[in-house]
Amino acid sequence: MTSHSTMPNQPQSETETAVQLFGNWFDPIEAGLRDRIHEFLQAMLEAELDEVLDRSRYARRVKRSTGASEEAAGVTGHRHGHRSRTLLGTFGRVKIAMPRARLDTSDGKTTEWKSQALRAYQRRTETAEALIAGCYLSGTNTRRVRRALRALFGGAVGKDTVSRVWRKVKSDWEAWDARSLVDEPIVRLILDGTVVRVRLDREATSISLLVVMGVRTDGQKVLLAIKSMGGESTEAWRAVLDDLIRRGLRRPQFLIVDGAPGLENAIAAVWAGVPVQRCTVHKHRNLLAHAPERLHEEISADYNDMIYAATREEVERQRKALIRKWRLKHRAVADSLQEAGDRLFTFTRLPLGQWRSARTTNAIERLHEEFKRRIKTQTVLPSADTAAMLFWALLASGQINMRKVDGWHTLATKLIDQPIDLAA
Q: What is the pTM of this model?
């Protein structure tokens, strides 16, 4: 009788069992180009130095085009060996021999030659750094960038590299944050804030990013300021507005706000008399917060009939009907609507074509949503400054684009002097 015994399969090593995704996707074009990168870079740097010294390597004299004999040309210095350098680019990591030279100066001394193509201490190409920063801006945290770019850079990019690249953005951010606004033809401002989580003193803390967007005379939206503050108090918003004025911002003709008391108080102190539109979306949320959930659908229907009415007269009629109805059905809703006053309907004083863009702070709200989508993988940002800088970089890098406001052709039209009738 023959017996058969079964033995459990022995575990194989990870290298034997792992399936390397794309491991057999050999690209002869890429491989051929990368093999020639070292040769190309070396030749480029040597040619750059040849041009500066006006002679090739080992040459002492050059022939002038006007004569057959060799005459001394203008020697400006001399070579003295090479220095080993490592450069990381989209072609991977390459080791090169950096040529060295001493150049003569006018005072009889010499100075070290510096390449314009490959700067001193440069370890990455500009394209590589832009790619690393772009991955970070796309919503990938510092640790995941390494895995995302492993195939391209051959594992040469770690989280520390990403952090160093990102810190280089800081100088551009600081220049933008302090730039003059004197020449900005701003006629309208949209102001809103959002809360983000950052690390302060090694603890996760909620801060507010106060954002100011401007609308130019040609209708183009432009980001003017992003400030990280502890909250949306009057003092916080006043600091933001004072900074805009200090940098030369003109008095705006129209303001769109979210209805936060701190912001409205700051505006009253700085730009009293400027027409203000309170965001209709924020007020909609306020109305729903004053009523049980079973009434939300009915409240929304009545509110939308009012806000999105086709004419100024229809808006007035729908408002009166809404207040009369909800005074009896659920008074808190009517009281909340009346609390907003005529600032909720300032958009009706504008030409009809501008109503859509003037009713809400949606232009900034969309930026908030996209910003939070990008940072979702990071949970807590490293610092308050990083939060503001990251928000700015999304627009500065072109990852988020802003279009002109609706009805921009009529921005020069003056507002109607008469506010909406608030009689109920």
A: 0.69
